[in-house]
Amino acid sequence: xxxxxxxxxPDRMKLLILSTEVPPGPGGIGTHAYELASGLQSLxxxxxxxxxxxxxxEAERVMFNEQLPFAVNTLANGSVARRLRQIWKTLRQxxxxxxxxxxxxxxxxxxxxxxxxxxxxxxxxxxxxxxxSGRLVRFLTRQAVRRADEMVAVSRxxxxxxxxxxxxPIPVIPNGADAKRFRPDLPTAPLRHELxxxxxxxxxxxxxxxxxxxxxIVIRALPAVLTQCPDAVYLVAGLPTRQAxxxxxxxxxxxx
Length: 256
Prior knowledge:
Layout: E1 14-19, H1 28-42, E2 46-51, H2 58-66, E3 71-74, H3 80-94, E4 98-102, H4 104-117, E5 121-125, H5 135-147, E6 150-153, H6 156-161, H7 189-194, E7 201-206, H8 215-228, E8 232-237, H9 243-252
Parallel strand pairs: 1-2, 1-4, 2-3, 4-5, 5-6, 7-8
Helix pairs in contact: 3-4, 4-5
């Protein structure tokens, strides 16, 4: 089935964002891609996204995509070859003026396919993709950084990781936040009551539950925290990928 995400508006820049993930499932790179697509669409660009949409049901995916102001081509599960064929087909059908690649596997695909069609592409560096183990993974990612027509990093730290791979200084555009969603004046009492946390002091982390995100460090600090704030409670928001290990640690430290 053909993917025709935009109208014939020759004066509007056509942008395709190739990401390793996109909502409604969780993930920081996916959220970044979604917000980037939404923002550029609102500025008059013609935007489409191609990415996996994991950790959700088919009904949730369809419902989410239907209310978006831009089109999403969901990458099918399967082999690397199958996904590359889908990306290639999408590039040939849409012929974007620019492709933005975000996430390590997206960088690899863009490096391989965009030059074959003469499509300029920009790499976004987040940081984690440059710290992954495995010589082949690191080699492919650094080759992609070298060959990208342009690159943007989300932090000075990320820019420093690959500074030697680019001929010019890497522009840094820090991650932002949606001021319409994240507001200090939003009511919290109903959720506190629902969770049985009325009057408690809450420590919250939101993100991928992993060793890198260091939720275990917070748990190890809780005994000291509770000596100063006896009513404190720690909430972890994220997929329960390390739930058993973290619960075991909390039990051992008597903070469960």
